[in-house]
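Appendix B.2, paired examples.
Example (i):
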Amino acid sequence: MAKKKVVIGMSGGVDSSVSAWLLKEQGYEVIGLFMKNWEDDDDSEYCSTRQDWIDAASVADVVGVDIEAVNFAAEYKDRVFAEFLREYQAGRTPNPDVLCNAEIKFKAFLDHAMQLGADLIATGHYARVRQVTDGPQAGGFQLLKAVDASKDQSYFLHRLNQAQLSKTLFPLGEIHKTEVRRIAEQLKLPNAAKKDSTGICFIGERPFRDFLNRYLSYKPGPMMTPEGKVVGEHVGLSFYTLGQRKGIGLGGIKSHQNAEGNSEPWYVARKDVANNTLYIVQGHDHPWLLSPALTAGQTSWVAGQAPALHSLSAKTRYRQADVPCRLDASNDAAFSLAFEDPQWAVTPGQSAVLYDGDVCLGGGIIDSAAA
């Protein structure tokens, strides 16, 4: 019987490198695909594409798989980056990794892999796919959290659908990051000690405000307290995130003291886009930072339809523990969530992702939060 052909996205990082080796060990015919998705300033100090390609090709050599490079820069700019800028211009805070996975890694990449004759694709994400064996969804696919809870990336993958999941393998879903590093060292992979990438998906780490400056029009405006007192000037609403504490630029503004006589830090609490006003509050637990409910649009459900109403849990940002919530998905295009405990700095543009235990059900993009 012919081996199944798997095309794996190889980024030059340790996770996708070890994934390629694991797939080969499992008996698949493995082909590596390196995606180049950003070209605007590729000669600058921030874009590591050339080094990443060298690392990916070196790993492919050690592991013994063929690798090719593919350029999705046009698709990335059109489908991901344009939307990213639109959201920032509207005063929201998008999550480029969610868009990137939905539009590039599991759409453009998947299409390209199928043209290469692949049976399946794979990535180095920490998540799992499981086929349902009984019940009304028998034969369908579920997206599960990774075994390594500290690395789980199901939040970023919540927009994947049945067709995509049916073709996807996540070789790292069952193992811990420490084990991935150990395997890389044991295999003497050239990137075994390479740091994990951070920053904007495919664009990399760079001074964020300077970067956005190049693409967005922005207008300074008043920075105000809930009482209506102007305490400073913001540099443009796009450059601030709800809950942000550092880099607000209040400098020497004296803080009010709390009952204990301590000066509480300032936080970004609201953006009034119509009046170009940034509201800031004092204290981590100021009521303006806490939301008992939210509404979300651009919904995407892994099973193809909204889950039945019952007690679920949700994340409103990636590095957050799941919190109990009640879902109301009365129409296909939007839903609302009510929380048992008010949630901190719920941010329009970020994703609200729903879980039933380890099963990621899908989610949507936060439109607004109740005060």
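Example (ii):
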Amino acid sequence: MVTPLADSGRLDAAGTARLVEHVLAGGVHGLFLLGTTGEAPDLPYAVRHELVRRVCAQVAGRVPVLVGVTDTMYDESLRLAETAAASGAAAVVAAPPYYFAPGQPELVEYYARLADNLPLPLFLYNMPSQVKVSIAVPTVVELARHANIAGLKDSSGNIGYFNACRYALRDRPDFAILMGPEEAMGEVVLMGASGGVPGGANIFPRLFVDLYEAAVAKDVDRVRALQERVMHVASLLYGVGHHNSSFVKGVKCALSLMGICGDALAGPREPFNAADRALIRARLVELGALSNEKGGAPPRYGA
């Protein structure tokens, strides 16, 4: 889930409430707060804690809430995990500490220590493009033996790595393996993955729920058709401008145009300029998420 923000950098409470109801209405099976799409590393700690409290209170057990606790400071990860547990979250998610990239033995030590002291189950978060280190397959297998480590969210975009993890843990159905990049979600769920964590579900939740359910049912023709829709969304909304953050900018701009929440980003990033915003608007019209009039229409793409 994105983190709706006011222009001042504070949490947009009203936008957050609308977004939560929007994605829940689309039938999602859970929410993941404070991941990459949620801009977690760039948010003030007060905003992170407030988001967790507000969303967990609003969800009120309707679906599990997972909370990202990635940080360079071990104590801050624990502090946020404690807020998550007190608020009713189901689990926490942590990528490797960034800046000084740890080696694999250090990763084992770090995650084991974290898992030993967390009040909730832990999901490993493989995000090498942002933290400069990948959690190697043997490291995942070793950490999966820990009683408080429940699964892996892989956002590497490397299908070979994903399938190697899945194969190595094929006798561990209790260990969840989730795909980050939505462009590969259909095929990996067909292969036995536990599910996906698609940022595009902020905009079109029903599309991704339908894709997941078709993959679980092994309906290959429907998976192929729905995955094509996912790729169409990605091609239109995620690559506007030449920014590392174009995906987040595109998702937040779309949500703003749909009247769900604003498009303010965590600093130092800025929202799209008028030209790029107009381009996103035209593409949402093409996708059926907005009318051709000035106002919007309820999103129907993927229904």
